[in-house]
Design a protein that fits this description.
The chain is an all-alpha fold. Helices cover 82% and strands 0% of the residues. It contains 15 helices and no strands. Helix 6 runs antiparallel to helix 12, helix 11 packs antiparallel against helix 12 and helix 12 packs antiparallel against helix 13. The protein is globular and about 50 Å long. It is a multi-pass membrane protein.
């Protein structure tokens, strides 16, 4: 990768870092806001689901717009919407306003992620792409590393302050992107043919795409039931404060980022994306179950760190695979990636929230079962591996 592309990638990653720093800021104070408004687990589940629902219906269109109107434009608009959604959540005093905020948040995610993935595909070769996408995931996780710590600190002054800071960071990242990012030149493999049929859902059901997209759905379905209620789980079960929650999530983020920077590129080259996905599914299903039986502070910390490490390798592995085989459908497949993620993120939190109100451990039993199903599917994914290797040569 030449110097100009490295600078562009650095700017792109810096903006992603700022956006996800904003998201990380609010995590430790969510239980405080939920308790303040007397919101139960089911309502939290629906709140996460409405975010995912808006992302679901918007992602295919946003992915196609990223191909048609440009990556930069979609990123800037998405960051502005994200900033506004955080400001809205900060001033929200009713459940209805919080739901509206999450709807804007889902729209912003649909605009940003397909465009960023396609942008990276444009400025990298097939050989460089796994490392670049690993850096993208690391930038996201680094935002989560610093964000909760800063959020826990800001919450000492006001439980609403982290949302205002997150909103400011979103708008600042949008300005930074508008000034510094240059629309990339499309590689021949990422250009959209004039009569491309990628605008239809038929593309997503091609065997080479459908299996990884289905795995994305399964992983999101199981993991969202875990992640969406995580802060509430440790708040209700262990009585953790916003500062405790910040420490746990920061530690998990550090482990995940280290794994992505130093292990992801090596593992994908050593064993391939598909085999890595198999092991991560198996690994995650075991550790999520262990979360229900630990009861000491440091054992909770250790298990959480390991859980995040496994989770943080699955998505970049699937994204890298899809990027390799997407050809001239980069933006569209990036959108479908977000769409299938949203399918899982809609139903996982709803089921998890309902189970949470019955028993605190039930969402984690549910996640374990879903991840085991994902493991079985990934083990079956042998023929797809051969097809992917053939197409990447």
């Amino acid at each position: 990768m030449d110097k100009k592309k490295k600078v562009t990638l650095s700017i792109l990653l810096a903006n992603l870092f700022l956006a996800f720093l904003g998201i990380g800021l609010v995590v430790p104070v969510l239980p405080t806001i939920m308790n303040e408004l007397s919101i139960n687990g089911a309502v939290v589940g629906y709140m996460v689901a409405v975010f995912a629902f808006v992302q679901l219906i918007s992602s295919p269109i946003a992915g196609r717009w990223a191909d048609r109107y440009g990556r930069k434009r979609m990123i800037v608009i998405g960051l502005v919407i994200f900033g506004l959604s955080e400001f809205l959540f900060g001033i929200g005093k009713t459940v209805e306003v919080l739901f509206l905020s999450r709807m804007f948040g889902g729209l912003s995610s649909a605009f940003i992620m397909p465009a960023v993935t396609a942008f990276i595909a444009d400025i990298t070769t097939a050989h460089e792409r796994p490392k670049a996408l690993g850096y993208m995931s690391a930038a996201i996780n680094t935002g989560f590393i610093i964000g909760p710590g800063l959020g826990g600190f800001l919450a000492e002054f006001s439980a609403r302050l982290p949302f205002y800071v997150a909103g400011f960071l979103g708008v600042f990242a949008a300005i930074l992107s508008f000034i510094l990012l240059k629309e990339p030149e499309r590689l021949e493999e990422t250009k959209v043919p004039e009569h491309s049929q990628s605008t239809t859902w038929k593309v997503a059901f091609k065997p080479i795409y459908f299996i990884p997209l289905l795995l994305i759905f399964i992983s999101s379905f199981g993991l969202s039931a875990f992640e969406s209620l995580f802060s509430l789980f440790i708040d209700h079960k262990f009585g953790f404060s916003p500062k405790d929650i910040a420490i746990i999530i920061m530690g998990g983020g550090i482990i995940g980022a280290v794994g992505q920077v130093f292990l992801f590129d090596y593992l994908t080259k050593k064993i391939g994306e598909i085999r890595l996905i198999r092991w991560c599914f198996l690994f995650s299903s075991i550790v999520v179950f262990v979360m229900t039986i630990v009861n000491h502070y440091f054992s909770i910390l250790l298990v959480t760190f390991i859980v995040f490490a496994g989770f943080d390798l699955i998505r970049p592995a699937v994204t890298t695979y899809l990027s390799k085989v997407a050809g001239n459908d980069q933006g569209f497949i990036g959108g479908m990636n977000s769409t299938f993620t949203s399918f899982g993120n809609i139903f996982g939190p709803i089921v998890g929230g309902m189970l949470f109100d019955i028993n605190l451990n039930f969402p984690y039993y549910f996640s374990t079962i879903v991840l085991i199903i994902g493991t079985a599917m990934a083990m079956y994914w042998k023929e797809a591996s051969a097809v992917a290797n053939k197409n990447s040569q």
